[in-house]
Amino acid sequence: MNTLPRKYAFNWDVIGTDVQEARPALGLYTSFEVYRLLQFTLRDVLESRYGTKAADEIFREAGTLAGKAFFERYCADATDIPSLVKTIQQEFRTLGIGIVRFEKTDTKTMTFQLTVDEDLDCSGLPDTSDHICVYDEGFIKGIFDSFTGKDFTVQEVDCWCSGARTCRFKATLP
Questions:
Q1: pTM > 0.85: yes or no
Q2: Which part of the chain is the 4-vinyl reductase 4VR domain (predicted)?
């Protein structure tokens, strides 16, 4: 664990709390191109400095942090898996993250398979035969980890960029 002094440890206040004062004309939203500009320029710098594997690990870890924060803000009232699923679907759509569909839900083994259509991170990108949504893997992991108190493994098994035209994730307990 890094013990260096930190300036921007994440909490919701870092993002800003009063949008009406900060952006009275523009409000909450911007284009997905601006989001992707941030994402892919940050990825470019991380990859250049540390290599693809390390950049993926950093993105996945950031996604996990974001997923935990997302859970605390949007899903903390979920009392069971069906209410968690419903909340995830509603909030992902409302926030423009993507359209979530749970294909398989096994609460005995805590195994889930879900898709994200119109994924904010990759839908519309060229086919590269890669699964690029490592941030999403972490994001979904953060939500499930927070809800269950367990350490999930989330893997993207299909991606828009691999030609699937949806992103499909499996969440399991190791």
A1: yes
A2: 111-173
Would you write out the chain's pLDDT as a tens digit for each of its 174 residues? 678 888 899 999 998 888 889 999 998 889 999 999 999 999 999 999 999 999 999 999 999 999 999 999 999 999 999 999 999 999 999 999 999 999 999 999 999 999 999 999 999 999 998 899 999 999 999 999 999 999 999 999 999 999 999 999 999 998
CB half-sphere exposure, 66, CA atoms < 13 A: 15
In a domain, 159, yes or no: yes
* Domain boundaries, position 112: 29-172
**Domain CATH number, residue 154:** 3.30.1380.20
| 3-state helix, strand and coil shares in percent for the chain, rounded to the nearest 5 | 50, 15, 35
CA 12 to chain centre: 16
**How many separate domains does the chain show?**
1
- Residue 17 included in any domain: no
